[in-house]
From TrEMBL, chain A:
Upper taxonomic lineage: Eukaryota, Metazoa, Ecdysozoa, Arthropoda, Hexapoda
An example molecular function term from Gene Ontology annotations: ATP binding
Keywords from the UniProt entry: ATP-binding, Nucleotide-binding, Transferase, Ubl conjugation pathway
Protein's name according to its UniProt entry: Ubiquitin-conjugating enzyme E2 G2
One Pfam assignment: UQ_con
Highest rank taxon of the organism: Eukaryota
Root EC class: transferase
A GO biological-process term: ERAD pathway
Function: Accepts ubiquitin from the E1 complex and catalyzes its covalent attachment to other proteins. In vitro catalyzes 'Lys-48'-linked polyubiquitination. Involved in endoplasmic reticulum-associated degradation (ERAD). Required for sterol-induced ubiquitination of 3-hydroxy-3-methylglutaryl coenzyme A reductase and its subsequent proteasomal degradation.
Automatic annotation (TrEMBL), chain B:
A Gene Ontology BP annotation from the UniProt entry: ERAD pathway
Catalytic activity, EC: 2.3.2.27
Keywords for the protein's UniProt record, in alphabetical order: Endoplasmic reticulum, Membrane, Metal-binding, Signal, Transferase, Transmembrane, Transmembrane helix, Ubl conjugation pathway, Zinc, Zinc-finger
Compartments reported by the entry: Endoplasmic reticulum membrane
Superkingdom as given in the UniProt entry: Eukaryota
Chief location: endoplasmic reticulum
One Gene Ontology CC term in the entry: endoplasmic reticulum membrane
Sample GO molecular function, one term: zinc ion binding
The protein's name: RING-type E3 ubiquitin transferase
Residue ranges of the TM segments: 43-60, 102-119, 131-159, 171-189, 209-236
Catalytic reaction(s) noted: S-ubiquitinyl-[E2 ubiquitin-conjugating enzyme]-L-cysteine + [acceptor protein]-L-lysine = [E2 ubiquitin-conjugating enzyme]-L-cysteine + N(6)-ubiquitinyl-[acceptor protein]-L-lysine
Metabolic or biological pathway, per its Swiss-Prot or TrEMBL entry: Protein modification; protein ubiquitination
Amino acid sequence: MAGSALRRLMAEYRQLTLNPPEGILAGPVNEENFFEWEALITGPEGTCFEGGVFPTKLTFPPDYPLSPPKMQFTCEMFHPNIYADGRVCISILHAPGDDPMGYESSAERWSPVQSVEKILLSVVSMLAEPNDESGANVDAAKMWREDRKEFETIAERIVRKTLNIPENL
Amino acid sequence: MRNLGITVLSLLLTTVVIGNAYYQKKQFYPSVVYITKSNPSMAVIYIQAFILVILSGKLMRKIFFGELRAVELEHLMERSWYAVTETCLAFTVFRDDFSPKFVALFTLLLFLKSFHWLADERVDFMERSPVISWLFHVRIISLLFMLGILDITFVLHAYQSTLNKGASVQLVFGFEYAILLTIILNIVIKYAFHVHDFHEMPWENKAVFLLYTELVMGFIKVILYFSFVFIMVRIYTLPLFAFRPMYYTVRAFKKAINDVIMSRRAIRNMNTLYPDATPEELAAADNVCIICREEMQSASKKLPCNHIFHTSCLRSWFQRQQTCPTCRLNILRTPGSTQATPAPPQRARPDPPQQQPPPRPDFQWGVPNPPPPMNNANIDQPMNDRGIQSPGPIPNVGHPPMPGAENLHPFFCSPFPIAMPFNVPPPIPPTETLSDEELARMERQTREGVEARVRCLQNIQALLDASVMMMQHYCAAAAASQRHMYPPGIHEINPTANASAPHAAPNSSSAPDTAASSSSVNPGPSGISSGSKIDVSDEPPQHGQTPVNLSFLNEGPSTSSTDVNGGTSVSPETLDGPSSEQTVDKVATDPCSSEASESPADSEAVRKRRLQKFSKDFNPGD
């Protein structure tokens, strides 16, 4: 059989298909390549992202459980912890040692114990509770802190966009 | 589509050029001469040749690789650009023998290089691909074979040419193909490993073998690059074009060395420090290695924190990080060699500190019990009450300063702050992989433990304050007695010797002094607030004749409230200069003491000296 990274990814895929967590759908883009995944995340209820379905892309390194995957939203996003190009900035996706924002303790970094499911769940909770201390998107962080109304309007527009609802309905 | 258009266009142009030449000259040889003499015609021919090369490249790619994946294409483009710029740099060195043949050779080199890169990627991809077809094996083997033959041929050719005609541009080619040959060798080894891994299901040492291959290959490449640069500098000039790949090679080699060292260390650690997990332990845990998510049947190790992993998984993780993947316990610092980390074990320990807050941790840490010596001092009653030592000696309390002073010295200078880390019990880590509730519980326990410790430290601080106070008692007593007996001197350095002195001193004279110095004692203690409350109730019966103490104790909490944070850092400050200095001032201005002494100026000087001595003596101890 193939390498350990592949086996682990297959195991995680099996796990995710057997017991899918609520509001999350994830799997490889195609069965030939287990190192590129697609995931759909639904916006957590009771937040300004409620109802949205956000497509994301996960890219796994060849030494997967030892190094974290990369995650990127493929739709438009406006969120303090998501870069303008969709890359997600949360601490469990950072290998201990690199700290782009300089605020994370190593206890919340990547370790092989983490999994795709945990990453996606943390992203859901990140959508619900942005961390405006570490602004991947400074504009969004500023708006989240100072003009919540405006932020929610933008979030709502994005949600509509992901659902293909015209803006003025 | 565009590519096709360009190809067709170039083909048309070529036909037109050749047709035109043939039409004008009617014969083969004159038309060839015509074309080579005419620059526009040559340009067309060159473009055509270039397109042909690309086309044949595509054909070969189709044959050996099929469709390229997006990543492969991306890497190929990236590397090609570097290779092209480096080739241009190389042209500058060999501008004298610049000719079409020369360009053609470099193009061929580039061409073969790209195939090496692709083969490398493909073989790496084997490890990540769920299905490997026969076609794949056939393609890879034939490609590797072909590339290997070509490389060897070119190396030999370059060697012969250099021998026969002296150093020329062939040197560069020979060297480049030698590097490519090492790449081929590396790929072949990797391929063999992967194939072996395919047949023998879990081949645990594969990662190690790959590491060593990397190391050896890196070493060969580094040597090749250095010798090349050396030769080039001797014969031509500094080969700038070789610097970038050389830098990367050296870096990769350094990384390989580092990896091998880390891996060896991890293996050694695992073999010597951590036991193999027994089947019972495996059964008790859920038997799945959290790193690879596979069942653990054999070859698994148990870390000091009781987490169990596959040996091979753990090794590859330890190569990067020396922590437990689950709880992040630093495994290099915890093992029995030193107990440099008291924190994790205590955190993990299910401490029952809530029931018996202050004395309990004290007891467990095995601090060389400070309470017994302090037993007679008035402040530490709460400690004794909790059962470390029964309050037997209470009858003595009549003269607090004396026995207290007797034991003061060992207490202060005894390795109290030093002793703590050494007496920490061995780690008692969490026993199973943790669920969220367990984590929460542990967190609570940790919190309680920390709180208890802070309380304990506060109590210790109170004790220290008490001893400072007793020192001052003693000072006062000594001062009082020495007025009658002998001039001030050395005797106060040694408290045990001094124990006799206070005997002579009337208690009544010490009491006012304490009152005078009380304000200097108080700034320290925060913990005294809890302790002193009990004291207040205990105090009056014991010190009937020194009501002033009571006032000090009452005053304590209010003056000290600012210092709560200091609880963890405890002692030194309370003993340091400031407090004693303050004492000096206070004592000096105190009416009671001045009334007691014969000449105020005299006694002031004496006390100053003495207190300075105290602070000097005690600071080094801390």
